[in-house]
Backbone:
């Protein structure tokens, strides 16, 4: 029974009688379901480390996509050497690589957590073999 169901039940009892017994309220409170914990990923050291490693490898592997070579500005210095003065970063491409890796790691982490939860539930189940 959820909180809203309990409130509806008590409102219904209030319509029938002006007095609601304490025993009825205590029994109804005992039937309330515990709120379920958030099943989202918990950011712990292991997850953060995996994310960092995956993002680093993605950026390293796709390093050719990170710099916008069309915006590069060069100058010729006094010793006739070419120097790079300015270049823009393809922020959109960088974020696409980072987002893709984050999604992969989070999905893998959630899958591992679900597997662990299923194993924990199986341990508490009796089986006929």
Residues:
């Amino acid at each position: 029974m959820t909180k809203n169901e309990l409130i509806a039940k008590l409102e219904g009892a209030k319509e029938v009688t002006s007095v609601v017994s304490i025993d009825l309220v205590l029994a109804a409170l005992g039937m309330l379901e515990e709120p379920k914990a958030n099943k989202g990923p918990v950011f712990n050291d292991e997850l953060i480390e995996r994310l960092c490693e995956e993002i680093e490898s993605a950026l390293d592997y796709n390093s050719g996509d990170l710099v916008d070579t069309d915006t590069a500005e060069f100058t010729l210095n006094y010793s006739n050497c070419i120097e790079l003065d300015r270049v823009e970063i393809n922020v959109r491409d960088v974020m696409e690589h980072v987002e893709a890796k984050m999604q992969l790691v989070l999905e893998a982490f959630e899958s591992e957590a679900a597997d662990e939860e299923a194993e924990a539930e199986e341990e508490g189940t009796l089986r006929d073999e």
